[in-house]
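Practice problem: predict the structure.
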Amino acid sequence: MGLDRNALHAMMVMPSFPKNYFMNILTRNTDPKGRVSLPKSFASSTVIIEQVSGTELRIRKARVVPEDEIRFTEENRRPLSDRDRDLFLQLLDQPPPPSPALRRLLRPRAKKRRHE
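Answer:
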C-alpha cells in the first residue's frame, strides 16, 4: 500500500496529539453590533480581548489586582548580603579605572563647523 506525497508530507508535519490536546472549538454568530455570547465560564468576568489579526481575536480572563495590593519593585527587593554590601561600598570608595571604551565615550569631540 503506497502513500501519495501529500499524505506522507502531512504525516511528517503533523505529529499525533492526545485526544484532549486541542480545546473545544465553538462557533458563534455576532449580532448586528458585533457582540458575541461567551461560554458561561466567562460570566461576570473581566476579560482581555487581544486582536491577533484582522480575522482573529483572543479572549482571556483577566486577573484583577486591587490598586492597594500592587507593590512597588522597591518593596520586593531583598537587602544585600554582607559580602555584596561590602563589595558595593568598596567600589564606591575605590572605583575601578575606566575602561578604554568608556574613555572613548567620555572624550570631548571637536564641534563640526558649518560652512556659510
